[in-house]
Amino acid sequence: MDSIISISALSKTYASGFTALKGVDLDIRRGEIFALLGPNGAGKTTLISVVCGLVNATAGSVRVDGNDIVRDYRAARAQIGLVPQELTTEAFETVWNTVCFSRGLFGKPPDPAYLERLLKALSLWSRKDSRMLTLSGGMKRRVLIAKALSHEPKVLFLDEPTAGVDVELRRDMWQLVRRLRDEGVTVILTTHYIEEAEEMADRIGVIAKGELILVEDKAVLMDKLGGKQLTLQLVAPITEIPPALDRYGLTLGKGGSTLVYRYETGRNGESGDSAIAGLLQDLAGAGIACADLHTTQRSLEDIFVSLVNEPALAGENGSEARAAAEGAR
């Protein structure tokens, strides 16, 4: 599958000295849903801002559908729709005028039928004549999506699109995203709701401290790193794990009444699944009886936390946000 966005050796250092991106290389495939994950201050907003032409890169290049974002700015930007985190709209304009104006900014001819379909898909048609100041936060978020799609872009960026919105809007939004993907639109999203990325994305990218540390198909990532955990409930508590069981790396918990066995899947060599039979035999040989057992799968959130391996710093997030705002000005 060919790439619609090609990012090469992209770096950004702001005038303050804050380095938000460090040599990022990334190809985003045409027609996929790509989730970009990272802690606060990791560089997600800066990366999106550079691709969308809101911030100038210090080094490197970006091409959108073959168009360089510097040399062919108009052609590149016309392919992109952006839904920002902030609810920025003209308070006294109507929904209809707001969306029509956004389409006109890209030199697109009027197409009332397309905009009507778009507003109906976002459950906004009944509010098309309402002024923006009368809308709820969730409705304003829908209008931002309509604005981003008004000029029929090939690429849609969703920067934390469901932060603070209700369950109904979140459901409607993901239905729309799936439909857009089916129609050939490439969707790039950042989200703090990692379960959404796990459900929606075709590929996952993880960025930390300005560096892209992983890009992988979601299914492959879950197979490689989505380890399992087997919890064994013991008939009688034990005070220590017998040395004969050391090779399993078991953890004793809950007052000695449980044993936890963690193992990875999708790796070369003996799999954890096949080792379970041997574990159960060795437990019986050690005189340890199990009353019950259950298995859980490591989630994408667990994988993300283990990759990043440190909490985000609020100050870092503020630095990136302030620096990005300065660059946009």
Automatic annotation (TrEMBL):
PROSITE patterns: ABC_TRANSPORTER_1, ABC_TRANSPORTER_2. One of its GO terms (molecular function) is ATP binding. Keywords: ATP-binding, Cell membrane, Membrane, Nucleotide-binding, Transport. InterPro entries: AAA+_ATPase, ABC_transporter-like_ATP-bd, ABC_transporter-like_CS, ABC_transporter_ATP-binding, P-loop_NTPase. Residues 5-234 form the ABC transporter domain. SUPFAM superfamilies: P-loop containing nucleoside triphosphate hydrolases. This is ABC transporter ATP-binding protein. It comes from Thauera mechernichensis.
